[in-house]
């Protein structure tokens, strides 16, 4: 019994350049999805955003103080 080569058929998928509904599922109900994720993980959101906002506001305050320091 010899081995016979088997021809494989390749399937090529392509999107039409005129197709407009490619990613509609991604954008559908986006605000609801974001609200659900944030309400589920609000403590993680606070723990992530608090240091970032705090550091940014401190840097802005320090920069403003340094800018006004030469006036007095």
TrEMBL record:
**Keyword Mitochondrion annotated:** yes
SUPFAM superfamilies, alphabetized: Ubiquinone-binding protein QP-C of cytochrome bc1 complex (Ubiquinol-cytochrome c reductase)
The record ties this protein, via Pfam families, to: Cyt_b-c1_8
Q: What subcellular compartments does it reside in? A: Mitochondrion inner membrane
- Specify whether Phosphoprotein is a keyword of the entry: no
Query: Where this protein primarily resides, as one coarse class?
Result: mitochondrion
PANTHER family with a match to the protein in the record: CYTOCHROME B-C1 COMPLEX SUBUNIT 8, CYTOCHROME B-C1 COMPLEX SUBUNIT 8-2, MITOCHONDRIAL
Tell me what this protein is called: Cytochrome b-c1 complex subunit 8
